[in-house]
Amino acid sequence: MNINDFVILPGSKTGTSVRLKAKTVRELKLEKEQLETENKEMEKKLRQLQSNMSREKEERKKSSAYRWKSGQAGPMTVQARVFSQSKENNSKV
To answer: What spans are recorded as compositionally biased (Basic and acidic residues) (predicted)?
Structure first.
């Protein structure tokens, strides 16, 4: 007999154990292996995601010169004036 074949049931008398069915033990071992495999796959995906995100972050830092910055007041360009006038005209109709 293997000591792993026994489990102490909660609420039972101290020291009382019940022998687990062999099928249940096999199922538990199989489930444990499946969970370990899934865990390894998820960790791999997480590392991949983290590396992709850090690479994209570096790319954004390099191209920050082309990034639009809000809150900067300045004279409107000719294209912006034409666009805003056409938008006003559309709303009047």
So the answer is: 36-46
